[in-house]
Write a structure and sequence with these properties.
TIM Barrel; eight-stranded parallel sheet; 22% strand; alpha/beta; Lyase, Ornithine Decarboxylase, Chain A, domain 1
């Protein structure tokens, strides 16, 4: 891991207005409230919460949420799992399919490492060949014996395996129902694998604009997951857990009585895309906690220009919004390219910011925005008068394999 630049080493204790631009900044007070609200929600509904770490990619934040009650983390990539394990996270679920043998060998070694530390690794499957490859690799690689501390070829550790069903995402997974039954049985028969339950995540539903739309979508998801569970259990094989859900729909999965674990991740930071959706009344009030700090570097009669372009925030879910402005002084952010953003007065009484003005942007999509940065700067006391308290590394930045 490369060392922190000198400017960041000396940043702790500085006023927020001295943070260089563009920088990715966390409002720690807002983030802490989001964590507490999520912990309270999960406890109230008696479900586990396993936040998706592909969003923040930070072992430090993963461990902070575990101290608040989180079960562990989800990730999507083997390299993300490796990075978080290196940072001390011991309970990791790769909620994705892995079929390449070199990657599966890394999975087996990571499973062994976590088992030796008293942790666990889980993974998702959706094809018989994927199950065979996983079992074969687990058996071949061998695992360290925790009490003896040595490698023993042919020994295997248990890895938890979830059968993924496609409940509406239209991506990975087998259709709900009968198609999942032989996969679950194959996992249960395989040496070194333990059938852990069903992966049932509907990502598209998270971003449906209307609360009623999301409710209807998850009602169908719950029925599909419950039916699949019943078919598997009719064979005599218990289904220990159904896991899934996200920030946009967690109210419904938690209340279903079918889901035992929530994988919501974006609640930690929120973003402009989630803010555009109609809020479900029963959902906890999650606040924006992730911002790109930027500075106005040029002003003309028609617009102003800031120094935060696409290299500082992702635009797949839309452009960022400008935060912390009064309604009659609002600004509209427009595409200015890689290094610049164009700012327009967004109302009859609005006016353009002055040269040198510091502004705060709420990214359209937090996950890929975080992946653009080496660190996140944690500020305590608010974005107006606060001070830098922590420098949080993005441990899994660029972890794509």
């Amino acid at each position: 891991m490369k060392p922190l630049p000198d400017v960041l080493k000396t940043a702790i204790g500085q006023r927020v207005d001295l943070i260089d631009t563009p920088s990715l900044v966390i409002d720690l007070d807002a983030m802490d409230r989001n964590i507490q609200r999520m912990a309270d929600f999960a406890r109230k509904h008696q479900v586990r919460w396993r936040p998706h770490a592909k969003m923040h990619k930070s072992a430090e934040l993963a461990l902070q949420m575990q101290r608040a009650g989180a079960q562990g983390v989800c990730v999507q990539k083997v390299s993300e799992a490796e990075a978080l394990a290196a940072g001390g996270v011991n309970d990791i679920y790769i909620s994705n399919e892995v079929v390449a043998m070199p990657k599966l060998q890394r999975v087996a070694r990571l499973a062994a490492l976590l088992a030796a530390r008293g942790g666990r690794l889980a993974i998702a499957v959706d094809h018989p060949e994927g199950i065979e490859r996983l079992a074969e690799t687990i058996a071949q690689v061998g695992t360290p014996q925790p009490r003896e501390g040595h490698w023993a070829a042919g020994d295997s550790t248990l890895i938890d395996v979830f059968v993924e069903i496609d409940v509406g995402q239209g991506r990975c997974g087998v259709p709900p129902g009968e198609a999942a039954v032989p996969l679950a049985l194959a996992v249960a028969r395989s040496r070194g694998l333990r059938f852990a339950g069903l992966q049932a995540y509907h990502g598209r539903a998270q971003h449906l604009a209307g609360a009623a739309e999301r409710r209807e979508a998850i009602s169908a998801v719950v029925r599909a997951a419950s039916h699949t569970r019943d078919l598997i259990e009719a064979t005599g094989l218990p289904v220990p857990l159904i896991t899934g859900s996200g920030t946009g729909t967690l109210v419904h999965e938690a209340a279903s009585g079918v889901y035992g674990e929530l994988q919501a991740g974006s609640f930690l930071f929120m973003d402009a895309d989630y803010a555009r959706n109609e809020r479900e009344p029963a959902q906890p009030t999650f606040e924006h906690a992730l911002f790109v700090k930027t500075q106005v570097v040029s002003v003309r009669d028609t617009h102003a220009v800031c120094d935060a372009g696409h290299k500082s925030h992702a635009i797949d879910s839309g452009l960022p919004t400008v935060a912390l402005l009064p309604p009659d002084r609002s600004l509209r952010y427009a595409n200015g390219g890689d290094e610049h953003g164009i700012l327009h007065a967004d109302g009859p009484k609005s006016r353009l910011p002055a040269l040198g003005r510091m502004l705060w942007l709420i990214p359209g999509h937090c996950d890929p925005t975080v992946n653009l940065h080496d660190v996140m700067i944690g500020v305590r006391g608010g974005l107006t008068m606060g001070v830098v308290e922590r420098i949080i590394r993005v441990d899994a930045r660029g972890a794509l394999t």
